[in-house]
Amino acid sequence: QVQLVESGGGLVQPGGSLRVSCAAPGTIFGIYNMAWYRQAPGKQRELVASTTSGSSTNYVDSVKGRFTISRDNAKNTVYLQMNSLKPEDTAVYFCNMYNYGRSYWGKGTLVTVSS
Fold first, then answer.
1. 16-66, pLDDT tens digit by residue?
2. 12 - beta bridge partners?
3. Whole-angstrom Cα distance, residue 39 to residue 9?
4. Closest CA to 69 of 56, 79, 83
5. CA distances, 104 to each of 51, 65, 83, 95 (Å)
6. How many Cβ atoms are within 10 Å of 21's Cβ, its own excluded?
7. What is the pLDDT of residue 7?
8. In the structure, how many helices (H) and strands (E) does the chain have?
9. Kind of pairing, strands 67-72 and 77-82?
10. The predicted structure's pLDDT at residue 17
């Protein structure tokens, strides 16, 4: 049974930084693509950033230049470094691991950007 555990969410002021993490213990982490999604209140879940098993990355336009996705296969962990945060970045951030027709989700971590 695959479990993804997100951490690192919290309250941050506009312009601040935060890093969220997603651990996938006990998996063959390196063969999976990883992604971060977010869902703001009253809105649909959207893809924020993704990284392939080969470490290629992709970002939604609204976070390009501000967010960085990275992975540490030795630690079975993917990170999302978020800089220059804006109030509109406020959302629950979900980790997704997918490949070979399988997809796994974490329970999410709340990021609130507010003064």
1. 999 999 999 888 888 899 999 999 999 999 999 999 998 899 999 999 999
2. 113
3. 14
4. 79
5. 15, 27, 26, 8
6. 18
7. 95
8. 0, 11
9. antiparallel
10. 98
Section 68-91 average pLDDT: 97
Distances, alpha carbon 40 to alpha carbons 31, 64, 92, 106, 111, in Å: 30, 18, 6, 16, 10
Residues 70, 50: contact at Cβ < 8 Å?
no
- Spatial distance between the Cα atoms of 4 and 88, rounded to a whole number of angstroms: 25
Q: Which residue is it, tokens 């999302």?
A: 80
8 A C-beta contact, residue 111 and residue 7: no
**In the prediction, which pLDDT does 26 show?**
81
SS3 (DSSP) at 36? strand
**Count of all residues that appear for the chain in the document:** 115
- Main-chain dihedrals φ then ψ at residue 24, nearest 5 degrees: -130, 70
Collapsed DSSP state (helix, strand, coil) of residue 30: helix
Q: Phi first, then psi: what are they for 15, rounded to 5°? A: 90, -10
